[in-house]
Structure formats: structure tokens, C-alpha cells
């Protein structure tokens, strides 16, 4: 179990769309509050809050852990399924959220394929509900980043000087983008690994070094693997899964070279025997299940901050 670190001051947010908008202190406050929820802290609302989860892209973890977090906090969850909604009659995202707001929804968690979809919603004078970004295309995945930070913090108690390799389909990964922004700011030393067709120097070089997985595997504190996102590839990769695994994946041979205290992370879903060997998914060094568990507590902490923002009319995103 994590150490209980009491949160000193309540964090208040209006929306959460990108980790870049959070200060380091706000990130640490969210981690501490998530740890408090993990240690069993209860939560009392001043009124009934209504949340809806608008997922326009597939999801298991983000969608269901938000639902779990909302229910653990006693919120009323308004069902929404794209296939049974007026989206099928051509309704836009804006009009869907406008409708949810009009019927009394306080918080909308949204996953959508359009990068930055939330900007129009937040700029609107009509929409008052809080927006939490559950992933925008290959843009940002702030709640995954925060649960990843919580998992790393639980393990090491700090970020400063940690050697963290992020490996795989970097260019399509919103997880990589959110994590590299925050981890570098918090003092981690970042390395990027994977096929060069999925590495963009202009986007990634400012955050870390592009190296081969074999040159860094024995030095890293955290080996963070990314899913190969075939659904986002314009040109289908000609590389077989075996070839990818042998050249870029975490196979058993590479895992045996890791430091004993180093951990393996993956946002999941995992392509077993592609990004990492099947046997490693639940091995002692893997924190993949912990990441999923922490997702509920971190999302409770985010919802708590949003509710606090509603009480205080917070303006930070
Ligand atoms: N890690 C993650 O975002 O998983 P889902 O796509 O299942 O939500």
C-alpha cells in the first residue's frame, strides 16, 4: 500500500484538457489526493453531481475507470453510447455536449479522434459543464499521464533524475506526448526508442534522446512501452509482429538486463508478444495492473478537483 500523504489544500480545476496546463504543485496535489483515496479516504458531496462519459473512440480502461470513480464518489452517471445517440443522425460533438449541459450534466469526460476537440467546447459561452479529456486522437491523454505519474511516484517517491525510456509507436501516442511533457518538467531523464518511422525529431528531440532499446535497457528505472496503434497508421506497416518484437519490443532477453528495481509500464491494451513478451505482462517488475488500479483513484482525485472548482469557479485547466 502507498504511504498516506495528507493533501494540505484542496485543488480546484474547471476542466482538465492537457497536463501542460497543470503546475508541478497541482500534479503533486492530485497524486496525494489519489493516494488518499487509495488508502480509503471517503468523500462527501455538497450536492448530487451528474457526470457523463462521451466516448467516440473505443476504450475499456479510461471509460470504465472513470465510471467506477464517478460511482465511488456517489455521482449520478448519465449513460451515453455513440451508436444509440443522435450522433448517428449527424449531430456534432458541440451539439451533443450542449445538450448534455442543457439537461443538467456537471462533468463530461470525452474521448474523441479530433486533436484539440475540447478547445471549441471550452471557448463556448453556452457550455458550462466541465470537460475532462479522456484522449484526443494522437494529441493528449492527461488522465493516463497522471495515473502513470502516480504509479512512478509510488515506486520511487520522486521523479528527479529517474531514467525513463518511452518505447514504440511514439508519433501516434497521446500517452507519450502527455508523459514526456510532464516527466521532463518534473526532472526525469527521457529516452525514446522504436522504429524511426514513428519518431519525429521536431516533436520529440526537445524532451529526450532517441536511442536503441538495447543501448539503454540496463540503465533505465522505468521502461514504458506503448501500444502499436495500427488503427492510426495511414500506411500499414510491413513489419511483422515477430520482427517488431525482436527489434523494438521488451522480450525476455532484454528484460533480464533490466536493473532489479526497474519497473515495466504500459498504458494498455497490450499487444502481447509485440510490445512486450506475454510472460512479462504480469511479472514482478510489471506495474501494468497497478496502473489500471491507480487509474480509478487518480480519476477520483481529478473529479474531486473539478467539483472543488465548481464550488470556487476555478479558472485553471
Ligand atoms: N490506456 C487506455 O487509455 O486504455 P483504453 O483505451 O482502454 O481506455
Q: Secondary-structure map with pairings?
A:
Blueprint: H1 24-38, E1 50-55, H2 61-72, E2 76-78, H3 93-102, E3 107-112, H4 118-123, E4 130-136, H5 142-156, E5 163-167, H6 174-185, E6 189-193, H7 201-204, E7 208-210, H8 213-216, E8 222-225, H9 241-248, H10 252-255, E9 263-265, H11 288-312
Parallel strand pairs: 1-2, 1-3, 3-4, 5-6, 5-8, 6-7, 8-9
Helix pairs in contact: 1-5, 1-11, 2-11, 5-6, 5-11
The protein binds phosphoric acid mono(formamide)ester.
Summarize the entry for a quick read.
The protein has 317 residues and is α/β, with parallel strands linked by helices. Helices cover 36% and strands 13% of the residues.
Describe this structure in words.
- This protein is α/β, with parallel strands linked by helices and 317 residues long.
- It folds into 2 domains: 143 residues, Aspartate/ornithine carbamoyltransferase (Rossmann fold, 3-Layer(aba) Sandwich); 143 residues, Aspartate/ornithine carbamoyltransferase (Rossmann fold).
- It is 36% helix and 13% strand.
- The strands form 2 sheets. It has a 5-stranded parallel beta sheet, with helices on one face. Strands 2-1-3-4 form a 4-stranded parallel beta sheet, sandwiched between helices.
- β6, α7 and β7 form a beta-alpha-beta unit.
- α1 packs across α5 and α1 crosses α11.
- The longest helix is centred in the last third of the chain and has 25 residues.
- The site of phosphoric acid mono(formamide)ester has 10 residues, from α2.
